[in-house]
Design goal:
Layout lengths: L1 E2 L5 H12 L14 H9 L3 E7 L2 E11 L5 E9 L8 H15 L4 E6 L4 H9 L3 E2 L16 E6 L10
Parallel strand pairs: 4-5
Antiparallel strand pairs: 1-2, 2-3, 3-4, 5-7, 6-7
Helix pairs in contact: 1-2
């Protein structure tokens, strides 16, 4: 996993589009997004990580700071290309976000999952995230019903690894 920079915005955009195509419903706001939107995320203090296999980019995840009583990040747009799925990279990508959050002094992560993606809700639950109706997301697609919101406190221990 490598940290992306603003110069990688087009790469992160392309990875998201390829990873989500045919997997996430066509009314997802991700399909309207541009590389400039990702550059703006970096400008707001957010970031991204890129997963690579043998040097080849195969997925990405983003994070953006969100207002909360303790330093918090929202995880956004995690995705792996089809050919990289099933190899255990999803939990590693999530753990890399946790590592980056801890290094930045962030103690809480939150996210939203589309209601038509119950397998993703289960995925995040295996990583220690719990349903949390108090989460205020940084953005929400007005064309879809409100997502399942989840959060996880990090503490100072090593990243949570699924069993």
């Amino acid at each position: 996993m490598t940290a992306a920079t603003t110069a990688d915005a087009a790469l992160v955009h392309a990875l998201t589009q390829r990873a989500w195509h045919g997997t996430v419903a066509a009314n997802s706001s991700a399909y309207l997004e541009t590389a400039a939107d990702i550059e703006a995320l970096f400008a707001r203090g957010g970031g991204a990580l890129v997963a690579r296999v043998d040097g080849v980019p195969v997925g990405s995840v983003r994070h953006v700071p969100v207002p909360h009583g303790e330093p918090s990040w929202e995880i956004k747009r995690m995705g792996l290309l089809r050919e990289a799925r099933g190899a255990g990279l999803g939990p590693l990508l999530a753990a890399a976000v946790e590592d980056a959050a801890r290094a930045a002094g962030v103690g809480r992560l939150q996210l939203g999952v589309r209601r038509d993606q119950p397998r993703l809700v289960a995925f995040w639950a295996t990583l220690g995230f719990e349903a949390d109706a108090s989460v205020a997301l940084s953005s929400h697609n007005p064309l879809t019903e409100p997502p399942v919101t989840m959060s996880r406190r990090l503490g100072h221990a090593a990243p949570h690894r699924p069993r």
